[in-house]
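Page 47, continued from p. 46.
Same chain as before, 354 aa.
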Amino acid sequence: MRNYIIKRLLLIPLTLFGILLINFAIIQLAPGGPVEYMLAQYKGLNTSATGSINAGTPNLNEQKYQGSKGVPEDLVKELEKQFGFDKPIHERFIKMVKDYLFFDFGKSYYKDKTVLELIKERLPVSISLGLWSTLIIYLIAIPLGIKKAQKDGENFDVISSCIIFTGSAIPVFLFAVLLIVLFAGGTYFQIFPLKGLTSDGWENFSIWHKIRDYFWHITLPTICIVIGGIASLTMLTKNSFIDELSKQYVLTARAKGLSEHRILYHHVFRNAMMIIIAGLPGLLIKILFTGSLLIEIIFSLNGMGLLGYEAIMTRDYPIIFGTLYIFALLGLILKLISDLTYSLVDPRVNFEKI
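Result:
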């Protein structure tokens, strides 16, 4: 196992390099850019940054940037220098890779902070949502999935399926709005706060007051994410256990007179949990950085999802590549942890030959 861990750790830098290279190339071809965004602001136009950068040598009869017509040439050159576009593409990429080796992601184009400072501010919010949501999803979905596998086709299985699929079919943003209307002072009850992760003056609260205030704020956003993510894991657990319960070793164990509880939790559980553990990194990454985006917007939570969305809309390349780098690194680390958990759940799994 030690050799496997070393090989996986050595592959992480190569994988990150490939991800950065591919996405850097895509960004160069994508329409729009920070120069167009600033030119649109200069001219008082829609700042959606929908122009395009011509990476090659511009035609003499064409403008290099859309929206640059009528703008002083000195201003365009100053913007190019400000954003680093006065240098060749390969030089920009090489510099970015060198800086990223030391987690130097540069400074945001539009915010007066470095990307690392912004990530440090926003990451705890996304981690809070992601960890609590994932924990609650697993605590509910796995026991429920096991129970559904035992009661397959019975009333409990049918009714529970209707409930969880109805909940998952409701769009997350619609469910969030419904909770706000009901419990956050929208129309009926003022039980939970409408925005933020903590109250004003949180730093001055006592430790128990801080804990209560934190969970008071995070309750509604977490419920929204859990409702949206519980169905798939429940059905995955159910189908995995049903598949294992139909195998020959279960029939043999029953023929030997072993109890259903012992068969389920001492024999089937270890095998059935393999595929569920494999899906943990993907579920956590999805909740951390994509699934919570709408929730962060609706509940005014300044997390990584909202930060990345804002950066894409304004073509803030340092934030885009910085958050991408962090997402990819966390994903690779979580995947390695998932593989290690495989071997803990089932010692028969051996990664040394991979």
